[in-house]
Specification:
With 323 residues, the chain is an alpha+beta fold. It contains 12 helices and 10 strands.
Length: 323
């Protein structure tokens, strides 16, 4: 197998046996057709299953074809090296830096040349629809439908960066990844996907949100403070405030409070300081950072010092000295 690889912590298969690869792809990915076209076959597949999305790495050391039936899964492919193409709804094209959003309402056929490598973003269509509706404050029966128009290339460049960074973070931390951090990264990626692609809510998503009042900020801050150790749930926040997610963000901005995410970060830094000031034998800077939703220890230390006035290690050391 080639040296380029992602998500090795989440190995699904690594084999030169095409029959074994077929069985695994059918069972884990939901494929219903697989054909290896070269005798010198080799395949690697890794899959990280998250809450509403899945992130997969696939490598083909021999030409192969793969098909999927209709499903509720939305897919987007991000080529790393080599050549590949797809066909769905009677149309086909090659896969470049990113593919169009591929809907699950039609059969999908894929062809891979030898040496092809890619990351695949798999998204639950219902979860993405709920997020889109919460962003615009829609409680109607309108469905999220992705349109055939071209995606915003500048936004998609950021999406590609986010996908690869997410894969690297998952590979680095694996099961040690803070649940708060992983849930919020997942949600942020889904929001970028909605902003990048034309769909049935695009016009409303880019329209100025309706006004509300200052009590919205107070309601949201009270909720976030009470649930600081949980992922920031945009849909729940909008439901509590009885406005759209975009209106929540605008009210925070107009009030000079930044954003719900920034407020949550401040609360979590305060909680981190409390935990470090009252340590037990198991308390460590890393454990506190992860508990409070900070995955990058360097960034946590920097933000903590700006907020508290000293490094987290100094807070912990001073607290232990007083015990």
């Amino acid at each position: 197998m080639g040296a380029v690889s992602y998500l090795d912590r989440y190995s699904l298969l690594r084999s030169r046996d095409s029959e074994f690869a077929r069985d695994r792809l059918f069972a884990a990915y939901g494929a219903d057709r697989f054909e290896a076209h070269d005798r010198a076959f080799g395949m690697q597949a890794n899959l990280a299953r998250l809450s509403s999305i899945g992130l997969a790495f696939c490598a083909y050391d021999g030409a192969a074809s793969l098909s999927f039936p209709e499903s509720q899964i939305l897919r987007q492919f991000f080529s790393i090296q080599g050549e590949a193409g797809f066909r769905t709804n009677g149309h086909g094209q090659s896969i470049g830096a990113w593919s169009p959003m591929i809907r699950g309402n039609a059969r999908l056929d894929l062809d891979f040349a030898p040496g092809y490598r890619q990351l695949v973003l798999r998204m639950d269509a219902a979860a993405l629809e709920r997020l889109a509706k919460s962003l615009v404050g829609d409680d109607s029966s309108t469905k999220l439908r992705f349109l055939d128009g071209k995606a915003d290339s500048a936004m998609m460049a950021h999406v590609r960066q986010d996908v690869f960074r997410f894969a690297e973070e998952l590979e680095r931390f694996g099961q040690d990844y803070a649940p708060i951090a992983i849930a919020e990264l997942e949600r942020a990626l889904m929001v970028r996907i909605l902003l990048a692609h034309p769909h049935s809510f695009t016009d409303r998503l880019h329209r100025a949100p309706p006004g509300a009042n200052r009590t919205v900020v107070d309601l949201v801050e009270s909720y976030v403070a009470a649930h600081w150790d949980e992922p920031l749930d945009l849909e729940k926040i909008a439901e509590i405030a009885k406005v759209s997610v975009r209106t929540v963000f605008r009210e925070f901005s107009d009030a000079g409070r930044g954003s719900p995410g920034q407020f949550a970060r401040r609360i979590r830094l305060d909680r981190a300081a409390e935990l470090l000031r009252r340590p037990d034998e198991q308390t460590s800077v890393m454990a506190v950072a992860f508990k409070c939703g900070f995955q990058n220890l360097g960034r946590f230390a920097s933000e903590y010092r700006r907020a508290v006035g000293e490094l987290p290690s100094e807070t912990l050391k001073n607290a232990r000295r007083k015990q």
